[in-house]
Amino acid sequence: MKKVLIADDNAELRETIAEVLKEAGYYTEFAVNGKEAAAKAAETDFDVVLLDMLMPVMKGAEALSEIKKTRPSTRVIAMTAFSTMENAVETIKRGASDYISKPFKIEQLLMVVRREIEELGFESDTVNIDLDRTMNCLANPIRRNIIKLLHRNKEMRFMELNRELAMDDHTKLVFHLKILREADISTQDKNKNYMLTQEGLRVFQCLMLIENYLSPRQ
Hints:
The chain is of the alpha/beta class. The protein folds into two domains: 3-125, Response regulator (Rossmann fold, 3-Layer(aba) Sandwich), CATH 3.40.50; 131-214, Arc Repressor Mutant, subunit A (Orthogonal Bundle). It contains ten helices and seven strands. The chain has helices at residues 11-23, 34-43, 60-70, 85-93, 106-125, 131-138, 141-153, 158-165, 170-182, 198-214, and strands at 3-7, 27-31, 48-52, 75-80, 98-101, 186-188, 194-196. The protein has a five-stranded parallel sheet, sandwiched between helices. Helix 2 packs parallel to helix 3 (60-70) and helix 5 (106-125) packs antiparallel against helix 10 (198-214). It starts with a strand and ends with a helix. The model has no long low-confidence stretch (mean pLDDT 86).
């Protein structure tokens, strides 16, 4: 279960956000000021911190800096009622992953939290991936489509792939399949069916996260 720290001095807002996040399957904890937020983040490895930028005891900007010192991989989403481009740029410079202005819709907040969790997962998944080789495979749209087809259908024969891709030149498909096999993204069973390897399944997840990230944001 992914862990989210909600740091805001508004009790009603904290409770509302917590209720929504719990329904979405997240574990939540509270902090009522910046100092408590920094302390809790140091004690517990939260995936995401929702951090109000205007809190007592320690301002959100100071808390953000402290959190990133102790938990550099934690995603921090800054929340503020005073949204300006200058504020946004300064917050990102201090280490925030994203920025959301109050008042916000719950659907908007959920979308931002989900995106940060996905990107965090993407970073973890790519740690042991040969990035150069993987990006070379994903750079070609034909290879991306092959990966998607093999994920959707589990296993496919050569002519099934060729038919789905509508390729006139069979040698092109042979070439792209060879690259995927050499990168340990796809393999063949004894019946000559093509399928994704475990590495290929991880690459597919990375591909989906990249495409979702690059798609127009709401």
